[in-house]
């Protein structure tokens, strides 16, 4: 495939307190085989050579596993390809002379740090509120003696595949963190080792989610549609059941 040229419109913002705006850039001679983030690397090399501040964005693994990347590409969190992080989105999904609009994830609980980088530490605080098992579960051989059915372990594994990228929040009109929080609650509540603390966990994580000013879930489903790991909104239903069980039992 031939190299392509693209017209980018990118959100630039110096820091959290500055006013941001869209800036046009040309991405020239882009190989269709490179990833979206590598395309931004090429653009940034050109900007640095011209003495212009490069476009800031987050990334770490660039393999779809860490959740660090994430931006809104042409109105969609992580871009047009389903079940794909923006670091795994390839430029072969675009055509020569395409216009691409690139913006940060937008939510009150995710303040912009600079350009496309947002502060997602609200997610860390939700995990700190209960997204762990603190009871003594023994070593690996002990864990292997507790039978877990295939159906339950599959469900727990599906929930555990959440990488915490925040696309669910960015895509939700309520900026709800329900898919993220419910995936973490589901993962642990389904497993025998996690059941001991399930009530405290559900109560604490849901209340931290509210404190961080995320909106509530109104069953729109956009979170599931953009999730790069295809986490099901059925986990939100489980989170609500776990939360109700906790408050009714009090
Ligand atoms: S950089 Fe790790 S998931 Fe994209």
Ligands in the model, by name, code or SMILES, are: FE2/S2 (inorganic) cluster
Low-confidence stretches: none
> What are the secondary-structure elements, in order, as H or E?
EEHEEEEEHHHHHHHHH
Strand content: 5-15%
Structural class: alpha+beta
How would you sum up the global shape?
Answer: elongated
Q: N- to C-terminal separation?
A: 63 Å
List the main descriptive attributes of the protein structure presented here:
five-stranded mixed β-sheet; binds FE2/S2 (inorganic) cluster; elongated; two-stranded antiparallel sheet; alpha+beta; 10 helices; 38% helix; 250 residues; 7 strands
Structure write-up:
The structure is a single chain. The protein is of the alpha+beta class. Strands 2-1-5-3-4 form a five-stranded mixed beta sheet. A two-stranded antiparallel ribbon has the order 6-7. Helix 4 runs antiparallel to helix 6, helix 6 packs across helix 10 and helix 8 crosses helix 10. The protein contains ten helices and seven strands.
Write the layout of secondary structure elements.
Elements: E1 4-12, E2 21-30, H1 36-49, E3 72-73, E4 76-77, E5 99-103, E6 112-114, E7 117-118, H2 121-128, H3 140-144, H4 150-160, H5 167-171, H6 178-190, H7 192-195, H8 198-211, H9 222-226, H10 234-248
Parallel strand pairs: 1-5
Antiparallel strand pairs: 1-2, 3-4, 3-5, 6-7
Helix pairs in contact: 2-8, 4-6, 6-8, 6-10, 8-10
Bound molecules: FE2/S2 (inorganic) cluster.
FE2/S2 (inorganic) cluster binds at residues 59-62, 64-69, 85, 87, 163.
């Amino acid at each position: 495939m031939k190299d392509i040229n693209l017209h980018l419109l990118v959100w630039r913002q110096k820091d959290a307190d500055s006013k941001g705006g869209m800036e046009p850039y040309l991405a020239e001679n882009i190989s269709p085989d490179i990833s979206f983030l590598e395309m931004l690397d090429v653009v940034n090399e050109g900007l640095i050579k011209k003495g212009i501040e490069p476009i800031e964005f987050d990334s770490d693994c660039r393999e779809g596993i860490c959740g660090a990347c994430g931006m809104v590409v042409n109105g969609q969190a992580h871009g047009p390809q389903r079940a794909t992080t923006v670091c795994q989105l390839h430029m072969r999904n675009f055509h020569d002379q395409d216009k691409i609009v690139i913006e940060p994830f937008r939510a009150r609980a995710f303040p912009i740090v600079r350009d496309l980088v947002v502060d997602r530490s609200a997610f860390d605080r939700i995990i700190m509120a209960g997204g762990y098992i603190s009871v003594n579960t023994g070593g690996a051989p002990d864990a292997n003696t507790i039978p877990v059915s295939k159906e339950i372990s599959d469900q727990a594994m599906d929930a555990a595949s959440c990488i915490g990228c925040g696309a669910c929040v960015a895509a939700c009109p309520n900026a709800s963190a329900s898919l993220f929080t419910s995936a973490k609650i589901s993962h642990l509540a389904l497993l025998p080792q996690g059941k001991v603390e399930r009530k405290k966990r559900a109560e604490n994580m849901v209340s931290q989610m509210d404190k961080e000013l995320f909106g509530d879930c109104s069953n729109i489903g956009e979170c599931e549609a953009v999730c790069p790991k295809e986490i099901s909104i059925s986990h939100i239903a489980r989170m609500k059941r776990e939360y109700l069980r906790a408050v009714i039992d009090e």
